[in-house]
Amino acid sequence: xxxxxxxxxxxxxxxxxxxxxxxxxxxxxxxxxxxxxxxxxxxxxxxxxxxxxxxxxxxxxxxxxxxxxxxxxxxxxxxxxxxxxxxxxxxxxxxxxxxxxxxxxxxxxxxxxxxxxxxxxxxxxxxxxxxxxxxxxxxxxxxxxxxxxxxxxxxxxxxxxxxxxxxxxxxxxxxxxxxxxxxxxxxxxxxxxxxxxxx
Length: 199
Hints:
By secondary structure, the chain is α/β, with parallel strands linked by helices. The chain has one domain. It is about 50% helix and about 10% strand. The chain has helices at about 25-40, 50, 60-65, 90-100, 115-120, 120-125, 125-135, 140-155, 155-160, 165-175, 180-190; strands spanning about 10-15, 45-50, 75, 105, 180. The protein has a 5-stranded mixed β-sheet with strand order 4-3-1-2-5. Helix 4 links the parallel strand 3 (about 75) and strand 4. The longest helix has 17 residues, at about 140-155.
């Protein structure tokens, strides 16, 4: 991945993380608005799980957790919630990632009242209590998230400050980034998939 030091890297933390057939258009339009408000440039990269995560295998999921500890990343907290869906602040996996990011990353839309009210650093410092107090669809999810948090906290100090470490993280985890204008175009077009190019 080629980029200059001034390139911005934005990770989107949505309520639909890991959910099959989410309301991607609603999320895309909300994301496009935030990118406009942030004045994201055409050179900036965005990671959105629905597009950028190549499967939910162990290495990919660990890579995504690790990404939320790297100083280079800026986090966009998705406040859009589809009807009947839990918000990003109610789900175990998303709050675990948000807790990680709070201590080493800039949260782009921290001025949003929903985001501000959900972030209490004194509470988030006690990750075990945060993890056990939130909604998990299955016991396996709780075990996986708890294990991932332990592993990330134990293994990941070098990636937080090492430029090459960031590149290795993306390569090994097969995390895909797209340019900000691409996501804006998807939202404007009303679809989550790129248009067909063949005949």
